[in-house]
Each structure stands twice: as structure tokens, then as C-alpha cells.
Amino acid sequence: MMATATNKQVVLKGYVDGTPKETDLELKQSILSSLTAPEGSSALLVKNLFLSCDPYMFRRMRQFYGSYIPPFVPGQPIEGFGVARVIDSDDPEFQPGDLISGTTRWEEYSLIRKHEQLRKIDPQLDVPLSYHLGLLGMPGFTAHAGFYEVCSPRKGETVLVSAASGAVGQLVGQLARLHGCYVVGSAGSSKKVDLLKNKLKFDEAFNYKDERDLNAALKRYFPQGIDIYFDNVGGEMLDAALLNMRMNGRIAVCGMVSQHGHSDPRGIHNLYNLISKRVKMQGFLQSDYLNLFPKFVDHVVDHYRKGNITYIEDLSEGLESAPAAFIGLLSGKNVGKQVICVARE
Amino acid sequence: MMATATNKQVVLKGYVDGTPKETDLELKQSILSSLTAPEGSSALLVKNLFLSCDPYMFRRMRQFYGSYIPPFVPGQPIEGFGVARVIDSDDPEFQPGDLISGTTRWEEYSLIRKHEQLRKIDPQLDVPLSYHLGLLGMPGFTAHAGFYEVCSPRKGETVLVSAASGAVGQLVGQLARLHGCYVVGSAGSSKKVDLLKNKLKFDEAFNYKDERDLNAALKRYFPQGIDIYFDNVGGEMLDAALLNMRMNGRIAVCGMVSQHGHSDPRGIHNLYNLISKRVKMQGFLQSDYLNLFPKFVDHVVDHYRKGNITYIEDLSEGLESAPAAFIGLLSGKNVGKQVICVARE
Fold first, then answer.
1. Taking every annotated instance into account, which residue ranges of this chain make up the domain Enoyl reductase (ER) (chains A, B) (predicted)?
2. Structural domain of B234
3. What is this model's ipTM?
């Protein structure tokens, strides 16, 4: 006789048209007939510990198939990156008790299959487990790949980072500082600005909501212009940055959270500066650089152990808190990387 | 006693705010005290033969110093590329009778100094003199540098060229065909479309003014998407191209004649596709690649002699015709590269 288990889930009610709301998600309880990975399935039955809230996920709430990732399935728990413990395994590479990070679902227990980004967590690493969703996870690797591979930084260059205290931005800024760059972060509250300047060691930071004229703000912080803009937001900040790029500047287009996958309602008006300043603007996804992942982990863990890098998380307790925490990303309620703690072990 | 000479000139009346008009330029007659290059001036006194009308010149009609080239000086003849014959020289590298191409002024006779792009024309080349303003001049070299250096083309890739029958576009398309690419050109009249298909050997061409939905038009010509967009116009065509780029596509941002240096009034809305398709978008100027100029001349002259490349010019007779010919560029009145013939020899 197999033991059944209840399984709380966060489910997408239906596809979203406008701005996603908390009520587009609902908590459900389902029943698992057993906590086992079926024989022949090559799958893992895992207990989810930490779940990641990431802006790209908003696009999956819309019925749009033209993106690099298909939409969520209504009525099903949503998918996302997570850290989990293997309970049962039909894959010989994984054993019960193993800790893994990779794509899982927003529920207590998931049956998952091996995939490109599913990794066994090395217990020797000795970093907080949740960091595998941020500093050592997809956002951290996005920062690493984007900064080193797309921005081609040189010592002494000037760097602007938007959404600078977010999951990606905070690491970009710290890597840039360690590389010998001058780094300015933009964020949406005085608390975040304070963290950027005092905890994350950015050279300067400002609250874009306090600036009536973003162009003037950028001229103040970059009197000689911007060599590298690591763009996490698109929209008006991108337009203002275009006006302030230096000759041969680079723009890494990493996210457009201000548009969350919709076309930009306001439009970008200053692309002409790409010509006059010979600027390269490049979109990228971390998944194209996975061969660099081991190097990234070594590099970041080394700096973390030496105290050169810190990482700020916004930890939300319990699956019940997940919808509010996730939707809060849209308005920047989170301070640092937003993570849901489903269970501690 | 030195002979004086009259010198007809095309002069900028004053800085322009909105769209440049023919009446912003005027014909003047000045007097040259002599047709000589003053001793110690290191200058050349030249007789201008052909003058080039190029879209970048519109920006120089505005009082704007943020571009890569300063504004024209009101009351003075405007500057531009030209082909001229040396009448007198105080520079030992040039002799009376030499033919040169480079920056000169819109007048019958100019006193010019050696500069980066001033070149002696090799009479052995045996191509029409005016071609040194187009096929073998700045526009041709823009096509060459942009296509080979910025677009990194591979055989079999799909290429969209806007303003495709223009001074730059017609060569881009022909180079792309010779490189083994599939090339579609967009232009603004049925006559130009006909030239693209039948004379310039593009695979396909369409009149963008006949298309109510540019996105649908591009989907028709590029069912598999666009690898390379050589953008000479910006605006709506760029926005539609962004929706149709293929994975790892490249956009060479060469000109935004639709905006002639003003910020885009409509705005670009589809930059999100840079991320999902990992597209590189790069602004460039030919002047950054001048070390490749000799290679370019060899390459293009070789193809021209073999009959692999043709070049369409729109030749306008006399300095009197210059203001109308120049302003006509803005509405695409020219068919092919617009040149003013000031004198035949």
C-alpha cells in the first residue's frame, strides 16, 4: 500500500491579457498517490524547498507562442527555477537525498525529468541553498555572461546598470567594480539606493522615480558618457541612456521588465545615437552560454568567500505567499532577489 | 596681375528647424581674386566637377553639435563629397591636372586642404568619374564595410535591405547576392522595384508604400525570418524587421533617413525581440574602417569589370539644380545615387 500525500500548488487560472495580477494565480490542493518516481519514467520525485520569482515568467502568463519559451498551462502549477531535494529517483544519476537546482513547478512535490539546466548541488559549496536561484543560478549567470561576454568590459570604463538592486543587477554592478569599472545603479526606492551605495559598493546610485529628467540625471553621473549600459528595463531609461552613450559603447539588452514582453507602448526614440556613437546593442539569454557555467561558479564562489561579493535576497515564507511575492516584482516591491521558501529541508 | 574669376555657390541661408526645404539653400555668386593656392597654405585650388547629395548632410543643416560632424556654416557654401580637378597646388603631393575625390564645397572652385578622405583618383581605374562619389566613394564603402564587417554574412543567409535602390542599398544587395545570400529590397516606387529586380538582380523587391502591413509583407518574403537587416531608414521598417528577425540575426544601423537626425517621432516598439532572438544591432560609420578602403576598391572594381555589379546614378545638371536635387532625397525623388554635375572637365 502506498502512502498518499497532499500537494499544495500555485496554479495559473487562465491566460492574462493586460498586467498580471495576484488573482490570476490561485492556491490549490491536489493529492499525490505516492511519493515515488514511477519505474521506467527516468524521472525524479522531489520536494521543493525554494522557488524563484523571475520577470521572464510574466511572459509565460500570456497566450503567446512567439517567445523563446512557451506559455504556462492554465489549471496547472506554474513552472520556474527551484531548489529541491530528491525523494525518489528513477534516474541512476540522482539519489534520494540529493539536492538539485533547475526547472521545477510551484508546488510542494514535483515529478521532474532531467533537463539542460538541472544540476546537482555540490554540498561542499557551502553557500545558502537559496543562492542557487540567484547568485549562483540563472540571474547570477545572466549577470556574468552578459557582463563579460556581451559587454566586453575594459578596466576604467563607465557602467550604468538599471534595476540595479535586482537579482541580476546587483551582481553586474559588483562584477563591474571588481573589474575596475566606475558603476552607477538606478533603482526605484531610497532604500534600494542606500543598499546599492552602502552594501553593494556601487560608486553611485539614484532613484529614477525622483528624477524628472533621466537624461539630465545620466549627464550628472556620467559627464563623460556611458561605455556600457546593462539594460534590465528597456523603456525610458534605455532612451535616456542612448543619448548618453560614448563612442563604441555597448548596450546589453537583458530584460525589459518595464514592458514584460508587450511591445513598448511609448516607443524608443533615440536609436539614431547607435550610428553617431557606433554603439553595439545586443540581446542575449544566459542559456546560450551554458558552457561557461562552471567557470562562472568558480569565479563567483571565490569572490563570495573572499567577501568581495554580497547578495541580497527577499525571502518570502510559504507557498501561500507566492502569488503576492511574484506579482510584487512588477512594481519593484522586492528588495533584492525574490525567492519563495516552500520548506527548509 | 592676377585674373579674377566668378564662383557660383550654393549657400545655407540659416539653420533649419523642421524638414529642410529647397528655399533653405540659395545660389550666390562670389568673386575669387585668383585661381591659385596661396603660397604657404598647403592647399589645393580645385575646380569641382561632381558633387554628392547624401542624407547625412541634412543633419548638418541643423544647429546641433552632438553629431559626429558639425553643422554647416550659414552664409557659406555647404560642404560635401565631390570629385574635382586640381587647378593649382601648394601641396607637393598634388599637381595641377590631378583628379581628386573628397570633401569639397558646393561651388565652382574651392580652396581645400588635405584631409583624411581626400584621395587622388587613379586615371587607370577607368570607371566614370562620378562613381567616386557612389560606387567607389563613401556610399559604396559604407555598403562594403557595413555588409562584411558589421553583418558578418554567411552564404545562404537571408538579407533585407531598405532604401534598396539608393546609393548604399543597391551595392549592399549586389554584394549580398555575390556572397550567396537571398536578398530582398524595399523601395518607394514601382520604378525602383523594377530596377531592383531586373537591373540590380535582387531576388525580390517590394514597394513599401503599397504595403498596408509591413510585418505581413516581411513574413511573405521571409517565411523563415531575416538573418541580416541592412537598415538605411529606421522607423516603421525597423520595427517590422525586429518582429521578423531570426535567431542570432544582425541589424546594421546605417541610416535613418526617415528621421534625418531628429529623434524618431513614432518610436520603436519591438526591441524586445533583440532578447528573444539574440539579435545584435550595431550602428557604424564607414570612416571607422578606412584601413579597408584599398581592399574595397579592388573588390568592387574587379566585380564591376566582370559585369557582376552595376550602379545606378541620378545625375542632375548644373549647380542651379543642386538645391532641388538635394531636397528631393528626402522624399525619395532620386532613382539611384544622386549626383550634381557642376562641370564635365
1. 30-340
2. 138-287
3. 0.88
